[in-house]
Task: structure prediction
Amino acid sequence: MGKLDGKVAIITGAARGQGEAHVRLFVEEGAKVVFSDILVNEGEALAKELGDNVRFIKHDISNADDWSQVVELAESVFGPVNILVNNAGVDLFRKIEDITVEEYNRVIRINQVGPFLGMKAVLPSMKKAGSGSIVNISSINGLRGEYGFVAYDSSKFALTGMTKTAAQEFAEYNIRVNSVHPGPIKTPMIESQDEISGFIDGLSVPLNRVGEPEEVSKLVLFVASDDASYSTGSEFVIDGGITASN
Result:
């Protein structure tokens, strides 16, 4: 038996990278998955590969109407939603003195407003299901600041706080809400050896390597599954030890 047998999941930002790894593992563990992204070609190719247990939909997570369509698709094809993984996000290196209001707001709209809309959109469906698990993918930058990432850090700190508020508000419906905080992970954004070495040196990673997407997926699986049935409003860090000394 899989850890997610009989579960219906929505995973955002899942056409490649960490999100793709989440989709693959969730399907292996028995879930029916609706996954979304703005990368249509990659998303459709992944859906074709994985078959009948998944559906792909193009999705702007900062748009409430798009969220309604994602939930409607999940319910019409697979049934009420049990799991939401708010994985989609963007980053931006720009100092406070250099960033424009438009640049700042774009990051906030995607990283902060997007997950808020997602939690709001799935709540009625999870109520119908009788329980649920929401996993918000934050970052170690949702626990500490980093030079040059004011918009990203602001959005991830907000997501950490929203998670704790939602955990309290949703508990009466037997819906758990937790956040996962990755450090540097080997995704399409950092693939060259020079980039990887720069992350290791710049962030002082005690384990002396970046993480693999599949390692994050295993933690997300645990948090999403009934194995974490007494965890809500919690922060799950997976960073190779970066924050251990902070």
User: Anything to note?
Assistant: The first strand starts at residue 8 and ends at 11. The beta strands are 8-11, 32-37, 54-58, 83-86, 132-137, 175-182, 235-238. The chain has a mean pLDDT of 93.
